[in-house]
């Protein structure tokens, strides 16, 4: 990192000062002050360094891999012991084969994409709706008093409860699915932003006012960036809620016009009593969730926290 | 400072106000200012002028309303009665905590203040570098706030305050949370920067020696409610040191008076 070398150079220069300089330190008060200051800066500066790759692999990658291997081992053991008949408890190999079969049929990517694209679109709409809603609740007292509690309450309402209502309203259409996804994700995103705004250091808001960040400029330059960590946590949860709501909706609202997503794949597996396919679909749903977390949210969150020195 | 430099300084200062209006003879004027929060009166009939280029410290024990007073002058709050006039526009304000934005680098914090002041984008980078140089942090532009020491953060905060190009700088115990050596160094820096920029400073502190070390005039506030108890002109030339005997001598006198003010409350209660 550039910062580290710079600090080191600063430090060396200060260390060399009193010995190398021929008493110039005392002569000019100005130079003495600058040198003293450079010394204080060098002594007090903290630098953040990234972990070496080897240690990162050992501490962050190895443990989850071991955990997965352990779970697979226990699963295989349970299968070998015939705790349940094969059609109820297939082996990991059988689930793998079921997925491989779907893969060779050439439909699996389409199925995953159907769900992921729906989830992503639903999430983006929820973002567009939830963000201004969250800002209003956070900053306008009457709005907060009126709908704040309802918004938190909605967060604990399982969005699958909306499926029957949505089907009555919209029939077996995409509108039904998106309605359920939005009702699941919007409260999370709005509440995340509210929590983020509530946790802003009031000093930052005052400092913003003092340097002239008022009104919309205050919103853009101070309020939103200050609320960002809470907002991102809300987005993460909003995505999780989108994804679950989507699976619930797809599982219940199945019709040929709705195409075939992961929820429908589950339902197909259930209707054929095909346990390997059901478990395979569950694994796919889980893996999509993990992939989105690892590829999108985790890097963004780490970046934001690292910038602010909130991450070691 | 050379005469040429002084003339240039003068030219730069009179530049933003080309109107033919006569310059008021003060950087801030407080007339009969009172402030109450509910039934409790915090400030009572404060009258205070800060001359252009003057360095004034406001000194008082806890509960004297020093910070409230600064908030009023900064326009963050309104007085319950009385008038406050700050002819130079919105004053700059430095807090006890650095109050830098952790989502921006040191340089970007300064550039944001420049942007909000209306400086065009092309000039911001260079001006931020100049201000960082002024607080002797050239090269720290890309540092994150959490990578800086307490003293460096306060210097960046000072640079950000100066970036507002206000003619009045308000300081609310800005060095109270620093260790003694760092505070000492920042006193020297502030004195130097004040002399270079000729900005007017209203500096709040509860540290008597700090007040005498820095100011041309020390104003002592009584507590509950805050009233102006007494003022001292500090005649010793800068640069001073906090351990100078004349600084110490005047500090003893002021401390006696301050203790008297505090004792008065013991008798009342």
From TrEMBL, chain A:
<comment type="similarity">
    <text>Belongs to the binding-protein-dependent transport system permease family.</text>
</comment>
<dbReference type="Pfam" id="PF00528">
    <property type="entry name" value="BPD_transp_1"/>
</dbReference>
<keyword id="KW-0813">Transport</keyword>
<feature type="domain" description="ABC transmembrane type-1">
    <location>
        <begin position="112"/>
        <end position="296"/>
    </location>
</feature>
<keyword id="KW-0472">Membrane</keyword>
<dbReference type="GO" id="GO:0005886">
    <property type="term" value="C:plasma membrane"/>
</dbReference>
<feature type="transmembrane region" description="Helical">
    <location>
        <begin position="218"/>
        <end position="235"/>
    </location>
</feature>
<feature type="compositionally biased region" description="Basic and acidic residues">
    <location>
        <begin position="1"/>
        <end position="13"/>
    </location>
</feature>
<dbReference type="GO" id="GO:0055085">
    <property type="term" value="P:transmembrane transport"/>
</dbReference>
<feature type="transmembrane region" description="Helical">
    <location>
        <begin position="150"/>
        <end position="171"/>
    </location>
</feature>
<keyword id="KW-0812">Transmembrane</keyword>
<feature type="transmembrane region" description="Helical">
    <location>
        <begin position="61"/>
        <end position="79"/>
    </location>
</feature>
<feature type="region of interest" description="Disordered">
    <location>
        <begin position="1"/>
        <end position="30"/>
    </location>
</feature>
<keyword id="KW-1003">Cell membrane</keyword>
<protein>
    <submittedName>
        <fullName>ABC transporter permease</fullName>
    </submittedName>
</protein>
<feature type="transmembrane region" description="Helical">
    <location>
        <begin position="119"/>
        <end position="138"/>
    </location>
</feature>
<feature type="transmembrane region" description="Helical">
    <location>
        <begin position="277"/>
        <end position="298"/>
    </location>
</feature>
<keyword id="KW-1133">Transmembrane helix</keyword>
<feature type="transmembrane region" description="Helical">
    <location>
        <begin position="177"/>
        <end position="197"/>
    </location>
</feature>
<dbReference type="InterPro" id="IPR000515">
    <property type="entry name" value="MetI-like"/>
</dbReference>
<dbReference type="InterPro" id="IPR035906">
    <property type="entry name" value="MetI-like_sf"/>
</dbReference>
TrEMBL record, chain B:
<feature type="domain" description="ABC transporter">
    <location>
        <begin position="28"/>
        <end position="248"/>
    </location>
</feature>
<protein>
    <submittedName>
        <fullName>ABC transporter ATP-binding protein</fullName>
    </submittedName>
</protein>
<dbReference type="InterPro" id="IPR017871">
    <property type="entry name" value="ABC_transporter-like_CS"/>
</dbReference>
<dbReference type="GO" id="GO:0005524">
    <property type="term" value="F:ATP binding"/>
</dbReference>
<dbReference type="Pfam" id="PF00005">
    <property type="entry name" value="ABC_tran"/>
</dbReference>
<feature type="region of interest" description="Disordered">
    <location>
        <begin position="1"/>
        <end position="24"/>
    </location>
</feature>
<keyword id="KW-0547">Nucleotide-binding</keyword>
<dbReference type="InterPro" id="IPR003439">
    <property type="entry name" value="ABC_transporter-like_ATP-bd"/>
</dbReference>
<dbReference type="InterPro" id="IPR003593">
    <property type="entry name" value="AAA+_ATPase"/>
</dbReference>
<dbReference type="GO" id="GO:0016887">
    <property type="term" value="F:ATP hydrolysis activity"/>
</dbReference>
<keyword id="KW-0067">ATP-binding</keyword>
<dbReference type="InterPro" id="IPR050166">
    <property type="entry name" value="ABC_transporter_ATP-bind"/>
</dbReference>
<keyword id="KW-0813">Transport</keyword>
<dbReference type="InterPro" id="IPR027417">
    <property type="entry name" value="P-loop_NTPase"/>
</dbReference>
């Amino acid at each position: 990192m550039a910062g580290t070398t710079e600090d080191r150079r600063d430090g060396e220069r200060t260390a060399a000062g009193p010995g190398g300089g021929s008493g110039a330190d005392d002569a000019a008060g100005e130079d003495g002050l600058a040198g003293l200051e450079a010394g204080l800066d060098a002594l007090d500066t903290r630098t953040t360094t990234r972990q070496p790759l080897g240690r990162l692999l050992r501490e962050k990658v190895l443990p989850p891999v071991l955990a997965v291997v352990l779970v697979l081992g226990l699963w295989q053991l349970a299968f070998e012991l015939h705790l349940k008949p094969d059609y109820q408890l297939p082996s990991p190999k059988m689930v793998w084969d079921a997925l491989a079969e779907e893969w060779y049929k050439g439909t699996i990517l389409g199925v995953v994409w159907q769900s992921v694209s729906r989830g992503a679109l639903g999430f983006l709409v929820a973002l567009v709706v939830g963000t201004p809603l969250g800002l209003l609740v956070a900053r306008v007292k009457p709005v907060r008093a009126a709908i704040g509690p309802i918004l938190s309450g909605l967060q604990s309402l399982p969005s699958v409860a909306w499926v029957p209502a949505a089907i009555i309203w919209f029939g077996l259409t995409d509108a039904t699915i998106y309605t359920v996804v939005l009702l699941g994700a919007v409260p999370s995103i709005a509440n995340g932003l509210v929590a983020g705004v509530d946790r802003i250091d009031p000093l930052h808001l005052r400092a913003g006012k003092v340097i002239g960040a008022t009104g919309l400029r205050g919103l853009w330059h101070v309020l939103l960036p200050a609320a960002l960590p809470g907002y991102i946590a809300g987005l993460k949860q909003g995505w999780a809620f989108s994804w679950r709501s989507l699976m619930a909706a797809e599982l219940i609202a199945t019709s040929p016009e709705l195409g075939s997503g992961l929820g429908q794949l589950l339902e197909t597996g259930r209707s054929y009593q095909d346990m390997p396919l059901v478990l395979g679909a569950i694994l796919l749903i889980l893996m999509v969730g993990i992939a989105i977390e690892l590829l999108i949210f985790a890097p963004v969150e780490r970046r934001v926290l690292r910038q602010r020195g909130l991450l070691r | 400072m050379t005469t040429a430099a002084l003339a240039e300084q003068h030219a730069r200062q009179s530049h933003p106000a080309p109107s033919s209006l006569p310059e008021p003879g003060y950087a801030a004027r407080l007339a009969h200012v009172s402030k109450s929060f509910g039934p409790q009166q915090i400030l009572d009939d404060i009258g205070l002028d800060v001359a252009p280029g003057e360095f004034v410290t406001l000194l008082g024990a806890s509960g004297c309303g020093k910070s409230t007073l600064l908030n009023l002058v900064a326009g963050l709050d309104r007085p319950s009665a009385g008038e406050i006039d700050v002819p130079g526009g919105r004053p700059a304000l430095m807090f006890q905590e650095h109050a830098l934005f952790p989502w921006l680098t040191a340089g970007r914090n300064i550039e944001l203040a420049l942007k909000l002041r209306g400086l065009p984008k092309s000039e911001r980078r260079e001006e931020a570098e100049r201000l960082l140089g002024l607080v002797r942090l050239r090269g720290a532009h890309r540092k994150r706030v959490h990578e800086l020491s307490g003293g460096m953060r306060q210097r960046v905060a000072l640079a950000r305050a100066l970036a507002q190009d206000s003619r009045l700088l308000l300081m609310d115990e800005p060095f109270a949370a620093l260790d003694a050596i760092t505070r000492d160094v920042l006193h020297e820096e502030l004195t130097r920067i004040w002399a270079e920029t000729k900005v007017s400073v209203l500096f709040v502190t509860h540290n008597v020696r700090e007040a005498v070390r820095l100011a041309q005039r020390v104003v002592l506030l009584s507590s509950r409610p805050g009233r102006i108890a007494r003022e001292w002109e500090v005649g010793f030339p800068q640069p001073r040191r906090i351990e100078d005997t004349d600084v110490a001598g005047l500090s003893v006198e002021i401390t006696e008076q301050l203790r008297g003010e505090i004792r008065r409350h013991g008798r009342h209660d």
